Amino acid sequence: MNLRWFSVVDMVAAPPKPAVIVRGIEKSFGDGGSKLTVLKGINLEAADGEIMMLVGPSGCGKTTLISIIAGTMNAEQGDVEVFGQHLLKMKKSAITRFRAQNIGFIFQAFNLIPTLNVAENVSVPLLIQGVSARKAEQKGREMLERVGLGDKWKNRPNQLSGGQQQRVAIARALVHEPRLIICDEPTAALDAKNGEMVMELFHDVARKPGRSVIIVTHDNRIFKYADQIAQMDDGKIIEVHRVEDGLPNLDIH
User: Fold this and answer.
1) Which of 183, 209, 241 is nearest to 49 (CA)?
2) Which domains does the chain have, with CATH numbers?
3) pTM for the whole thing?
4) Virtual CA dihedral for 131, 133, 139, 141, nearest 10 degrees?
5) Which of 46, 60, 61, 123 pairs as cysteine with 52 (C-beta 3.0–4.6 A)?
């Protein structure tokens, strides 16, 4: 019988693997004298199995950064690696396929399709993947139950409040079980109760193997759900806080 002696080092938990690695990202808009540099050499890592929140004043580059991480926007310089795939080196068609299979994006503007009912809106990512309409709608209705809108599945988006539309957008981003969930102000239109429900859902998703959540937020009520909080200002990452070390006192407005 072989015995192995374990040292203290063996018993220390290994640090989480990075799900997203951002290196030297730069992004500008405009040309010549009107050129505006929005991101200035961004370096950042979001870990597998964790929730990272991006905070900072409006206009500091948060939404631009998550758009590049999601593969919906290009950068002039740098590299973005998502679960081992270098997005900025991939062809547009390959990025589109990768995003459909692996990334759920919750837009601040919701982007719901007005001609579809709520269940049909939520089922869209599954239809893109080739799931049958019947099965996709069934899974969409199940996800609506999880965000507290199971009785609204037949409604059109314009029959819902802003907070309800936001929960529909969240359900749509989660329905195909993406590995990376990227959220732009997901609790902005939600009251405290529904905000807590949504964050508990994100927390459960992030803890599954091979998953990660990145959230842009001004809502300090949800900081307690983060594992890391990355503070941005003027197109740069100023500091990254580990929440296990205590919640930071941040001026983010």
Assistant:
1) 209
2) 17-245 (3.40.50.300)
3) 0.88
4) 160
5) 46
List Cβ neighbours of 164 (8 Å cut-off, separation of 6 or more): 149, 152
Q: What angle do CA 183, 80, 173 make, to 5 degrees?
A: 25
For residue 33, what are the CA distances in angstroms to 29, 97, 151, 236? Answer: 11, 37, 54, 22
pLDDT per residue as tens digits for the range 196-214: 999 999 999 898 888 999 9
Contact status, residue 226 vs residue 243, Cβ threshold 8 Å = yes
Q: Do residues 52 and 214 touch, judged by C-beta distance below 8 A?
A: yes
pLDDT at 6: 47
Running DSSP on this structure, what letter comes out for residue 87?
G
- The Cα 200–Cα 190 span in angstroms is 14
pLDDT in tens, 98-154: 998 999 999 888 889 999 999 999 999 999 999 999 999 999 999 999 999 999 999
